[in-house]
Amino acid sequence: MFRFAQHDSAVYAMSTDEMIIRDAVETDLPAIIDIYNATVPTRLVTAELEPTTIEARLPWFREHSPHDYPFWVAESDGRVIGWLDFKKFLPRCAYRGTAEISVYVDEKFRRSGVGQRLLQQAIARAPSLGITALVGLIFGHNEPSLKLFQRFGFERWGFFPAVAQLDGVKRDLVVMGRHCPPRCSHGPVGRPQTAITTPYPDAPQARGYNECLNLMYTLMHYRQEPIHSALLKMRDKYSMLHVDVLLLIYHFAKSCSGSILEIGAFVGGATIAAAFGVRDSGRQKKLIAIEPGGSVKHKRLGTRNILRDLERNLDRQRVSKMVTLIKGRSFAPETISAVHHALGSDEIGVLILDADAGKRRDIECYRDKLTEGCWMIIDDYAGADSNVKSAPSRADVDALVDAGALEPLGFYGWSTWVGRWRGRAARNH
Ligand SMILES: C[S@@+](CC[C@H](N)C(=O)[O-])C[C@H]1O[C@@H](n2cnc3c(N)ncnc32)[C@H](O)[C@@H]1O
Question: Is 9 domain-assigned?
Fold first, then answer.
């Protein structure tokens, strides 16, 4: 289906400041369908040859979800004047990060910036939806849409000559695509190149620069989403980590390919954040948590029995079935073999290290299962010099960064290091 509309024939004077973009609800469907049907006779936008109905489109509408493949409407003065939807580009898992978007604007509001605003928001929000590439399928003769997409960094990624027949005329199809954020080795488009001072002067900064900004950007967006308040509440009860770190764990678990391994689950804060991410990914992913148990004195989170409270909390948050809990120490041979057994042929796409000071030891135990580019969340990187955990943790992380096995992408919360595993490309460590 080629659903692209943003023609030129327009009329209405409206400032886009008056416009809001929100998630569509079913009562918006009549307006959505009206806008869509108005494009059918133009033969410029959609490959649909006859007008459609609300009933026919209801299942399609319900396939969307605000957290995965959203459907947004642009509203002005209480009236729906345009819409944009995301859908799977192709059904196979490997294409999960690529989404197709369609934009339609009410003919009375064309040339008012409605399509632009929708498109800008799609590009900005893509990373927080786990989307790394956007494509639009546009007829080759739909010049206004092609120009609009070009203006927002889309390039011609594909061309299918004469594949559509509209009233006896053969029409071409163009696939316009862009990465989000753009794949550029010199930093984000339009931003000045400034020298970054990090603790790692030799780190491959150019590659990481975009990704660092992307992570910050992703967090900024999650802070306005319902998941932020859900994780804030959950953190108060179950976690020692900062809510930003929990949001990143949620995001990585949602968008990663591969399984998730957590070392040092305590009473479940990070485990639950990861489980929510898996749940919202709509995909089957293994989430394995290692915890030996014991008791902890803590003003907010003290417990006499870590494992009992961990199991109870996973249950309360309805995620126990998603978590394989391995009771033991990360480095014990029986724990390592239980993790390998649980993983089977899967690899680890997210590793959360929040146990003791043996960060390098834990990485060594599971490095044969880490995917290249595996997200790494390592707590206790910073702290007072007297802190028995942070000094050796930091030394371990810095040594691996130095060897090129870890790529640093930021520091979050109070003391959490975030980055990626680059072990295969590493020099010698
Ligand atoms: C700081 S807590 C983890 C906090 C948790 N991530 C959260 O969200 O609040 C550290 C946990 O690691 C566990 N732990 C310590 N050494 C471990 C090891 N070698 N393997 C697995 N877990 C370990 C401790 O029992 C403790 O529950």
Answer: no
